[in-house]
Amino acid sequence: MKIIVCEDYDEVSLRASEIISKGIKEKKDIKLGLATGSTPQGVYQNLIKMFKRGELDFSSVSAYNLDEYYPIRKDDNQSYAYFMKDKLFSHINIKPENIHIPSGEAKEPAKECEKYDSALECAGGVDIQILGLGINGHIGFNEPADELIANTHLTPLTESTINANSRFFESIDDVPKFAITMGVGSILSAKSILLLVTGKNKHKALMATLKGTLSTSTPASVLALHKNVTVICDKEAYYGDAV
Ligand code: GLP
Question: What is the pLDDT of residues 147-162, one digit of tens each?
Answer without folding.
Answer: 999 999 999 999 999 9
